[in-house]
Every structure is written in structure tokens, then in C-alpha cells.
């Protein structure tokens, strides 16, 4: 079977690479399952100090795979696994991020995006809403920015993503890997206990969001995906045309 979440390891840092460029690393049921399994392995591996989540191709993650989407509960479990992992998860983004891919970023502890990156919450244009990805996003995003980008689906760049709290830093003209050198060095110098205890402090609000809202948002997501608007929106997307409601 083709591995869609390819692992590698270097000096305490395990890198998990989203490696399905043919569908722009879209969140298929298979990819979500593989990534969840890989994170579970990292959680119990004493050799892993931290995890880097990155990608092949020019897209970090295009959102849900509309041809083979994961169950909403499975995707929620993946995002919660990132937040609750007792080891920091660092996102390295050098490409585009759409819809559910922003949920992965929101779940990560630290993230760096390069100048070629772009971001968009496109759900409203498909007759959907950023339902389950709100669990990690809304506790971290600037509220006014969340309202704008949730409603309009506009595209924005890495600098704006950093300004509104979606990513930690925009690398600008320099290389993303150079920007992450002090981050990874700091993680390697920290004790495993110190990292776990510190992460527990900074993720407490996000985990409460999962505990309080996950069940409702999973149900809301399932209802939206089953709606007439969503069928029209997803069909139009696959057919590369505007949906019927566009004015």
C-alpha cells in the first residue's frame, strides 16, 4: 500500500510528510488514518522529542478529499491527537492550505509558512461551514479576522496568517527551514517532561473546545455535507464551474 504520511527521524525530531501530491494532499480517509496512527507511534516513542508536519508538492493540504472524505469524527480525533500529543508538533508550510488543512495548522503548536504559501477557508463557497476545524481554530484566531475569512472564503498570504494567529511566523524572503532552526534547537534543548508540561498549559483552552463542542460540530458537519447546497457546491467544484447560487 502507498504510504501517504511518510516518516523520517533526525536528532529527536520525527518529520511526518503529507505525501499525496496527486490530490494536493487532500484529507482522505486513508491519509487521516495513517497520520493518526503515525502520531500515536510518536506519542509512545522515547526517541521522539518533537514532530514536524510538512508536505510534498506545492500544497500543504487542500482540505477534505471530496471523492473519499474521512468521517468527521475521525478528522476531529486526528486534530485532537495533535493538540493532546505530549510532544510539540511543528508545521512547516511552503505551499497552499485550504479548508480542512487549516484545521491541521490550528492544531499544531508552532507553525512557519513561506512566501509561496496561501490560505483560504473555502467552505462557505461549497455550501458548507468550517465546522469541526473551528475546534482548534476559534480559540487561536483573531475574532474579527475569523469572521471575515469564514464568511468570504478570501485567500490570504503568510504574513496575514501570522497576523491573525493561524501560523506562528511568516518566513518572508528567507528559507522556511532557516526560520525553524532556532525553534527546533529550542525543542531539542528542552526536557521531555518540560515540553509535555509546558504544552499542557498552552493547549488547555483548545482542549476544552474539543471537550465542550466536538459532538455538536461533528453533527453539524454531517448535516451540512448531506444538504442540497453541499451537493451542488461539491458537484460544481468537481466540474470546475460556479455553483447555482453565484450572482
TrEMBL record:
Domain of life of the native organism: Bacteria
Gene Ontology molecular function: catalytic activity
InterPro entries named among the record's database cross-references: ClpP/crotonase-like_dom_sf (IPR029045), Enoyl-CoA_hydra/iso (IPR001753), Enoyl-CoA_hydra_C (IPR014748), Enoyl-CoA_Hydratase/Isomerase (IPR051683)
Family: Belongs to the enoyl-CoA hydratase/isomerase family.
NCBIfam families associated with the record: PRK07827.1
PANTHER family associated with the record: ENOYL-COA HYDRATASE, POLYKETIDE BIOSYNTHESIS ENOYL-COA HYDRATASE PKSH-RELATED
Protein name, UniProt field: Enoyl-CoA hydratase/isomerase
Organism this protein belongs to: Streptomyces pratensis (strain ATCC 33331 / IAF-45CD)
Source taxonomy: Bacteria, Bacillati, Actinomycetota, Actinomycetes, Kitasatosporales
Amino acid at each position: 500500500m502507498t504510504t501517504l504520511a511518510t516518516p523520517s527521524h533526525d536528532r529527536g525530531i520525527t518529520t511526518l510528510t503529507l505525501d499525496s501530491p496527486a490530490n494536493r494532499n487532500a484529507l482522505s480517509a486513508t491519509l487521516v488514518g495513517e497520520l493518526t496512527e503515525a502520531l500515536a507511534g510518536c506519542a509512545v516513542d522515547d526517541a521522539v522529542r518533537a514532530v514536524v508536519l510538512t508536505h510534498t508538492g506545492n500544497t500543504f493540504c487542500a482540505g477534505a478529499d471530496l471523492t473519499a472524505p474521512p468521517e468527521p469524527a475521525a478528522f476531529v480525533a486526528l486534530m485532537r491527537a495533535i493538540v493532546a500529543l505530549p510532544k510539540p508538533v511543528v508545521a512547516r508550510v511552503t505551499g497552499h492550505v485550504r479548508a480542512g488543512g487549516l484545521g491541521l495548522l490550528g492544531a499544531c503548536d508552532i507553525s512557519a509558512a513561506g512566501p509561496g504559501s496561501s490560505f483560504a477557508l473555502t467552505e462557505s463557497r461549497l455550501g458548507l461551514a468550517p465546522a469541526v476545524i473551528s475546534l482548534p481554530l476559534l480559540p487561536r484566531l483573531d475574532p474579527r479576522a475569523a469572521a471575515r475569512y469564514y464568511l468570504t472564503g478570501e485567500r490570504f498570504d503568510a504574513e496575514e496568517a501570522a497576523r491573525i494567529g493561524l501560523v506562528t511566523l511568516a518566513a518572508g524572503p528567507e528559507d522556511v527551514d532557516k526560520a525553524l532552526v532556532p525553534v527546533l534547537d529550542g525543542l531539542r534543548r528542552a526536557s521531555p517532561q518540560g515540553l509535555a508540561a509546558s504544552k499542557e498549559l498552552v493547549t488547555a483552552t483548545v482542549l476544552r473546545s474539543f471537550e465542550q463542542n466536538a459532538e455538536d460540530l461533528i453533527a453539524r458537519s454531517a448535516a451540512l455535507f448531506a444538504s442540497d447546497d453541499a451537493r451542488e457546491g461539491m458537484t460544481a467544484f468537481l466540474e470546475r464551474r460556479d455553483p447555482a447560487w453565484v450572482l
